[in-house]
Amino acid sequence: MVGDHLGKVTGQVIVPENIGGGGGTLALGRLARSEADGTTVALASTSNLSIHPTLLKDRIQYQTLRDLAPITQISLVPNLLVVNPERIKARTVQELIDHLKANPEKITFGSSGVGTTQHLAGELFMQRTGTKMTHVAYKGSSQMMPDLIAGQIDLAFDNAPLLWPHIKSGKLIALGTATAERLTVAPELPAIAETVPGFKAVAWHGFLAPVKTPKALVDAYAKTINEFMQRPETQKRFDELGVLPMHTSPEAFAKLIADEAAQWSKVIETAGVKPE
Asked: What family does this chain come from, according to its entry (predicted)?
């Protein structure tokens, strides 16, 4: 969507190239080595930008704010805390905390993989609440979800768009959102932070360029992309996808990346998380 818009505005052909491998780290390594002339930008995520530099360290070929120039954040994907209603009888975050403290390491939480925001959300939750659970890593949410619904695991943090259908059907119970505040689309669902102050574990996406890209070009990209993100039709499409549309300055996006990197670095080091 953004590429099509940029093409119309600039009159140039924008070619999206999906570069797999390393959870997006190969793509950002290539971006860091690209010419800083404004012809190459990349769309990246929380994991690529604020988690992998700590988790993968010497395995990746870039450091985010050293080698890349943030342009703008375009989305925020809320994570929700959900439980299997047959396995966990808690219906509030506090009841879950009490249950976990009464059953240390007996409760399992699933994730879409080691080092994902879903995994680290569980680690952060344990660190902030003084509880202990057993982590079960899957190769993606599509593999985890059937086991969660069937009761093979007890609970999980995962992206809201994937969870809403199962919550609405009653197969899963949502206890809270991992956003800093309640979601406008589900105001009845408490934020976990209302019980665990400061708790936030979300996914997000944004555009970046090579670090030496002239600021005038970075600002021009930000202006064009942000104008597109504020269009009603764009916001409507993002709402349909269950994703919150965002539009920020390069400076605000850089601060988000740095703040998230500081949080997840501490979580990773405290929990002793190792890459697979």
From this structure: Belongs to the UPF0065 (bug) family.
Read off the amino acid at residue 218: V
- The rounded Cα 257 to chain-centroid distance in angstroms is 11
The pair of three-digit structure tokens given for residue 57, joined into one six-digit string: 């360290």
- Residue the block writes with tokens 């690209």: 34
Q: Are residues 119 and 185 in the same domain?
A: yes
Residue with tokens 């994730």: 111
* Residues linked to residue 68 through DSSP beta bridges, in sequence order: 210
Domain count for the chain: 2
CB-count exposure of residue 5 (10 Å: 0-12, 13-18, 19+) = middle
- CB of 245 closer than 8 Å to CB of 75: yes
Whether residues 110 and 158 share a domain: the answer is: yes
| Residue where one domain finishes, among candidates 194, 217, 243 | 194
Residue 54: CB atoms within 10 Å: 17
pLDDT digit string (tens) for 148-202? Answer: 999 999 999 999 999 999 999 999 999 999 999 999 889 999 999 999 999 999 9
| Cβ(93)–Cβ(122) below 8 Å | no
Strands 68-77 and 203-210: antiparallel
